[in-house]
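agent: user wants the full assembly modeled, not chains individually. Plan: 1) parse entity lines 2) check alphabet per entity 3) run joint structure prediction 4) return tokens. Steps 1-2 passed, two entities, 730 residues total. Proceeding.
--- entities ---
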Amino acid sequence: MALSRAPALTVAILSKAFESFGGLHGLINSSDAERRSAGVPAAAAQFLCSSAALPNNAEQAWIEEPQHCVLPFTDPRYPRALRALPGAPIALYVAGNAGVLNDPQLSIVGSRNPTPAGRDTAFEFAQSLAACGLGITSGLAQGIDSAAHRGALAAQGITLAVLGSGIDIIYPRINFPLSEQIRLQGALISEFPLGWPPRRENFPQRNRIIAALSLGTLVVEAARRSGSLITARLAGDHNRELFAVPGSIHNPLSRGCHELIRQGAKLTETAADILSELNFSAFFDRAHEASGGLAAPPDIEAGMDKEHKILLDALGFDPADIDLLVVRTGFKPEAVSSMMLILELEGHVQAAPGGRYSRVVRSRR
Amino acid sequence: MALSRAPALTVAILSKAFESFGGLHGLINSSDAERRSAGVPAAAAQFLCSSAALPNNAEQAWIEEPQHCVLPFTDPRYPRALRALPGAPIALYVAGNAGVLNDPQLSIVGSRNPTPAGRDTAFEFAQSLAACGLGITSGLAQGIDSAAHRGALAAQGITLAVLGSGIDIIYPRINFPLSEQIRLQGALISEFPLGWPPRRENFPQRNRIIAALSLGTLVVEAARRSGSLITARLAGDHNRELFAVPGSIHNPLSRGCHELIRQGAKLTETAADILSELNFSAFFDRAHEASGGLAAPPDIEAGMDKEHKILLDALGFDPADIDLLVVRTGFKPEAVSSMMLILELEGHVQAAPGGRYSRVVRSRR
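--- prediction returned ---
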């Protein structure tokens, strides 16, 4: 944990130092001068001599929790797919089953605000492919990412969420319940130290890990200029397979996928397209079966009052205030207020600053 | 007309005979023996000596109508694009403006039973491209063909219909009024003698002419095994550009287009994609304007009832059935049914086979 917080260290530098000192413990027990002569940069060596290198309270508490671990790049469970990556993380924080990190994976990424059909498509692809034994890797964002994680969970499959913040900071907060399920049925992963906030600049770095971990990346719905396309291009750069789902030319969220297809991504209609491209042929028949049964509609808010459901759908997945909900639903303001209170008490929505409400995204299981 | 009815004649044979006799009139005035020694096959020579070679009543009547003509392959108005074709027609029957046959053309083909969105797409592409000066060539079939002809007509552009029957046999009969408009604003073309019925085996031959006449072929919606794909592959064989419009993975009529895209057809979202690929750069700005109009967010749902709007948003851009819409909106099934009926009557959605509905994407021009 200290090394992952140290400035100016890379896997290459540490590999060399570990060689000199016979591993991590040798490095820890070495002197400042020995470290510097073994190629440890001044800033890092200085950090390692300071009290800042000692485990802090948060770290001590976190590592003691069950199923929490930190995998240095020398750990056999550290993903082989990452080792070759320039700028590979020195260590990965893992909450969940660290044994799945080397499983064959497909990443599924896309818009945070997909169409209903796009969300279903992500869920269904993830469900089919997870049922065939592929881990489903994504970024725990709202929209396509969440749908992909949920699809894998629904298939009792493996899913991995790679965070753009410290592993103790679940972002977006609304996905905390989903993150708990992922932890139980797969793994949450972060290369950032504990407490690291979800800064904008973390996400390209996080996307690089998603791309590198996976045999391929599937883009479900993405606008022409979007983070998903960045992940996708990174996948291409790492010689990973790139898959994109086509859609209506009138759907702005198909444009990114179409752009990728024009640039050589595989046009993808079914889970079988992906399995055959990845030579997952042994699993092909199971996939075929699974995708037959996939159309089953999600059933989350089954017993809910119809007007409440309309309101919840009108809320969508971004915070909205009462006025906006009145406009969207056509209900009277006082009706919206009282229904939102009920929805809040039932745990479907959460009050946010500025008189706004956010939806609480429940797992579908 | 007689030569086009004669057996065993080809453009190659006739070219040689015309050289020997100094053209068509020399051939007509030559003796049977001279014809045979000039390489005219026995069957053809025999036919030319028989009374069957004389113009019949139908031919005499047809050729006297205004804007009717027969263009032998030696006529300067005969399409240059066809001359190089193996098995080029000896003559073309033309009703309409024979001067347009050498205009730059794009063929638009696809299913005879398209989705409403597919029909609109064909219409809109044809309208945009015809407005930019491209002739729109198709086969006068129902569905995509008809929509393409109509789009070109709506733009006051040029459109050409290539028939799979004699030019005096309009098939399907229901398209007779459309054929009249095409005749007035473009041209009807056939290589078959008058009275020739629309036999199944004529259509691949007709499709070859459509493909060869055009700079490229755009496939809008086509099932995986369909005549449209044959035309498309012929276009590829003749080194013509091949364009295909992607669509929802849940639309069976997008499968053929997706297959073509996988095989190298250009994924096509806008008319500008086609114009730039064809280097129609002089026209590009006009097209861009035209398609800019298309990309403007639709404002058609402005005054719509809120619940109807929710339903339309839930429908998204892929066909969906009532059950799925019930799940997505939380409305009661009977409410969804009655609202869908209203939306259908108002022209916002259209019923599709299998109890599904598609959104009607309106032209925004």
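agent: reporting back. Residues 282-300 of chain A have pLDDT under 50 and may be disordered. Residues 80 and 317 of chain A are 36 Å apart (CA to CA).
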